[in-house]
TrEMBL record:
SUPFAM superfamilies for this protein: Macro domain-like
Name this protein carries in UniProt: O-acetyl-ADP-ribose deacetylase
PROSITE patterns documented for this protein: MACRO (PS51154)
Cited NCBIfam families: PRK00431.1-6
Gene3D superfamilies per record: Leucine Aminopeptidase, subunit E, domain 1
InterPro entries: Macro_dom, Macro_dom-like
Originating organism: Cohnella ginsengisoli
Domain Macro intervals: 1-179
Amino acid sequence: MEKTLNGAKLEVVQGDITQSAMACIVNAANSSLLGGGGVDGAIHRAGGRRILDECVRIRSERGGCPVGEAVITTGGNLKAKHVIHTVGPVWNGGKKGEAEKLGNCYRSALRLAEQHGIASISFPNISTGIYGYPKDEAAEVAIGAVTGVLARKHGFERIQFVCFDFENYDLYVERVGEL
Ligand code: AR6
């Protein structure tokens, strides 16, 4: 499923983000930047040691990555040239600023991508696994944040939501279809 918004293709696909052929993929990391389970584990496994080496260097320089912010590394052995690591919020009932923090993840990642001249980028469904964010609410925030960026002047050609589980895929197909 895809839509064209202000000159960019917004795509919804089902699959494994480590196989993405976009210039950059986004990782749902944690503040330590030292890896973990879920998509984070998959990206580090597929991308190899160079990604972790750069994460360790960034961590030693600035003490990790706060929730809602983003850092960039090499894509290592991935097809993607870069990985942007962002840290989603842990779901805590919805009244602890979770939506703002989750939206900030998408906005921070896109800002960093533009600063690096990246025109194509794949996002996973940040916070909807181990961090427990309800999938329908997370989809609304994610799509809102990305379409907000695309509504302004931007340098993107393709932005992809890569949904691993079919619950997320169906939610995104429905919501992006309504845009
Ligand atoms: N490709 C695309 N999406 C994936 C993949 C994959 N290969 N594997 C899982 N997902 P999660 P979080 C989806 O738990 O909730 C880590 O330990 C998955 O179906 O990876 O942000 C970090 O180090 C779900 O929809 O990330 C943190 O400690 C989505 O990715 C913590 O988990 C996010 O699930 C972050 O938790």
